[in-house]
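Friendly challenge for the regulars: who can give me the structure tokens for this chain first? No prize, just bragging rights.
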Amino acid sequence: MLKYFGFHPEPINQMAIYHAGKQYESQLLESGRTSKNRDMKMDVYDVDISQGQNTTKDWIHTVEVMNKKGNKKSESTPVVILHGYGNGIGYLFKNLLPLASLLPNRKIFGLDMLGFGLSSRPSWDSYMKTTSPPPPTLSPVPPTISLAESWFVDSLERWRSSQGLGKLVLAGHSLGGYLAVAYAERYPERVERIVLLSPVGVPHPDEEKSKEKIKSAPLRFRMLIKTVRFFWGLGCTPMSVLRSLPSSRGKKLVDGYVYNRLRGLSDEDKESLAGYFFSINTLPGSGEYCLHEILKVGAYARAPLVDRIPNLRVGGGVGFVYGSHDWMDVDGGLQVQEVMEASKGGDGGCEVRVVEGAGHLLMLENPEETNRIIAELVGGGGKRKKGDRSWRHHGQADKTGWVRMKGEEIGGEGKTGETRV
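First reply, four minutes later:
Bragging rights claimed.
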């Protein structure tokens, strides 16, 4: 099929690429150590999630950290962090150990989702042909979408069961946030709380606005959009394009992306992250091919989360965290907050927070603030630091002085629709 591009310009040594990815991951994780967590134990291992003796071996690559303090025998609910599309555990190198420091006596897990990172890469086509979608009673979305979500949801549930864990606190970045919600829909009894970091697929697309933008765009841009939509529908992914290039050209593109996108990192970290990104995304394609079943062009979900999150049966509520110059629209989180407040009263169990000086990759662009806010939300929220920005749909400022006025366009610092009072 076209999504595989049908060729690779040079022979590839999958084992060598895999081991290179492990080496870069190790460098990144060690770089995340500081004087505060230097002696903290970190375990890196693979969890077998194979089903039955006659199936191929599948595993979830896992990093586990815990900051054991005092003589406390009981542990708090573990936190499981799910990465974004095309990323992996390596992108969490500034978060895992610091979060363990902030959340003592609580296990912190970073996972490579099935078909990504250093986890196994089963065939997506075979899965589609041999797997039935869950019954409608378990999934509120159409069968094709539900089946694509099940690829990740079911593998996460097998991982949880294999680890002998009970309830989880789920934190997910971008696609990982979307999948955390899908898991909580299917297994509400397993989820205590959800923290969504710049999640993809929350709001409904503004179709009319998009049509007007495309209509007024130059011809070559309109042709580009049509081309992208065509290939997207066929399942072509950015990673399949990367694999189709000579290694030297692909590595140069990745280096340029990482070095320009994450200028705040040290040169050593940028080198390791670029090598890691290149390695995990030149391994055989797998989980990436589900994306066109879940998302439309433009990162809008076919089954938007704004319609799904308010119906979750998660006792601890939901927290949204966006960067102050995030390309993911904070309005999605605000819409969810408004619906939950209207239906449940009070704050509705939904909080929307903002990380200053960060974009979509907030966990790398301002890790200190991101980690602090995650820890507060995991612990129940409500412990804002002076100067925090909290976005709300109300016409009154909260204690930090930040307010997002419903239905108004207010020119302010950072994003349209915010102001200081």
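The longest helix spans residues 143-163. Residues 32-208+285-383 form a domain with the Rossmann fold fold (CATH 3.40.50.1820). Your move, everyone else.
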